[in-house]
Amino acid sequence: MTDQSNRFEADHAVAADMPILSVRGLGVTFDGERERPFGPPKKIQALDNITFDLERGKTLGLVGESGSGKSTLGRAILRRLPISEGRVIFDGRDISNVKGEALRRLTRDIQLIFQDPYTSLNPRMKVLELIAEPLLVHGLVSSLEEARDQVGELMRLVNLPLDALDRFPHGFSGGQRQRIGIARALALKPRLIIADEPVSALDVSVRAQVVNLMQDLQQELGLTYVFIAHDLSVVRHISHDIAILHRGHMVEMAERDALYDTPEHPYTKVLLSAVPEPDPALRRNGDCALEAHRPPELNLSGPGCRYRDCCDKSGGHCQREAPPFAKHRGGHWAACWHVSTD
Ligand SMILES: Nc1ncnc2c1ncn2[C@@H]1O[C@H](COP(=O)(O)OP(=O)(O)OP(=O)(O)O)[C@@H](O)[C@H]1O
To answer: Where along the chain do its domains lie?
Structure first.
């Protein structure tokens, strides 16, 4: 175990058996457009009744199509937007309503890795400034020179050469920029990292390197990840558990191999059937699985399962009542009347 790892552990003495993150009945509602002048804004329910636990040191892969609520869930956990319903418990503490200094402190513990390393790094700041900025903002160092050693150690962690410190980000490749973004996210020694599509903007050839780096860092520093992706092929390698979002609802969650080998929810099966086929025209059931972006508010009318219109198993029960997100065979959690319980 390295010194860096010891430092992380010493700083974060916690009950090891408690999930680092528990989300209970989480709902997030946005104000949409007004239907008439001066009328009330339409309500957009981006997330509804999301419940899951994430164990310390593990990765939850969060998968869903565009508009399914992945980023909203990430931002709700980070407390960057108001929670309408339910609770987010981080390290045994309810953080659903934290404000002020407590929220500021929380941003040290939970960090975000952005999707696009081209736009997320200020082009006018040198790498030293970019990585040192969180340390300066949180008052952990008082000058760039004081930060230099810590930043150098972060550069070592993400396999970037030290001579990069005094250069601007435009001189780096996408993969190297994402390493800078990761070093910046690590600067405050977070325990939980929300990685919002961290490899989607990168060339396919460097995606695996960044995913492998994140895995190595997880081992070395004991990090926990929520790894967001819009497709199941990206999260397989890195995830311990995988959760599937569909129109603001969690429809299935299971241990990685169980989800790929024996998917339970019809929507998961359709997403999986789309994974190996790169040509969208050839994807099976493509109309429903890979639907064009449809805001969730269009789908909230009436009772019943939100997937009912796309499901070939849909029957009367599915039309009348939404299935609960419940535990089923083989440890799968799924929201479907057609999955049998243990
Ligand atoms: N600030 C906001 N105001 C109003 N609606 C919003 C806001 N942010 C998100 N939404 C809506 O909430 C829903 C979920 O959006 P979200 O960005 O979380 O989806 P996503 O799964 O991350 O999609 P993508 O993969 O395209 O990023 C969408 O209908 C989106 O239009």
So the answer is: 3-17+56-80+99-242, 249-334
